[in-house]
Write a structure and sequence with these properties.
Blueprint: E1 2-4, E2 35-39, E3 49-53, H1 58-71, E4 78-82, H2 86-89, H3 91-99, E5 102-106, H4 116-129, H5 137-155
Parallel strand pairs: 4-5
Antiparallel strand pairs: 1-2, 2-3
Length: about 170
């Protein structure tokens, strides 16, 4: 589980420009930003849980826990990987997780690469934001929504090699 805060500004990621020439890139001065909170089931990436909020804090995380639990068909324990954000570590969040039978696993500092949802955010950026100009905030919001409603369900089955928990384990040095 993680929060993401994409902005309407053009996300310049790559491009081919002939040496000695200038390339103009359309961008906006808008500071429009979305606050997304998401969680991904590695067995069913296409059905990732993503919700938009006015702000991200302990209450929104508790709301996410409640929604995740209500979407789960069984009473089995839900395992969530979280980073060290203050709103993830608050007592309110920890107490609600216990009530809802959700086990929380906190990542070490500065290790977002260990959280699979970070890779989903990257895929979303590739499909929606990279090198794309959004003239209006509405166009930007619709593009983000379209990714999670239409694009992700159609490409989710192909993302298993990119979004997983198959990490390289290094041998200890002796």
């Amino acid at each position: 589980m993680d929060a993401m805060h994409p902005t309407q500004a053009t996300k310049i990621c790559c491009g081919w420009i002939k040496t000695g020439t200038d390339k103009s890139i359309e961008t906006t001065g808008s500071r429009t930003r979305l606050n997304l909170v998401g969680a991904v089931d590695l067995q069913n990436i296409a059905s990732a849980y993503v919700n938009r909020y006015e702000k991200v804090n302990s209450e929104t995380i508790v709301d996410c826990f409640t929604e995740l639990r209500s979407n789960e068909k069984s009473d089995k324990t839900i395992h969530l990987i979280l980073d060290g954000a203050g709103y993830h570590r608050s007592q309110v969040v920890k107490d609600r997780a216990v009530e809802l039978n959700i086990l929380l696993y906190y990542l070490p500092p500065y290790s977002p690469n260990l959280n699979p949802i970070e890779r989903l955010w990257k895929v979303m950026n590739e499909h929606v934001r990279n090198n794309k100009y959004f003239a209006t905030a509405r166009e930007f919001r619709e593009a983000i929504d379209n990714f999670f409603i239409n694009i992700l369900p159609s490409v989710g089955d192909t993302l298993g090699s990119r979004i997983n928990d198959n990490f390289q384990v290094l041998k200890t040095v002796s």
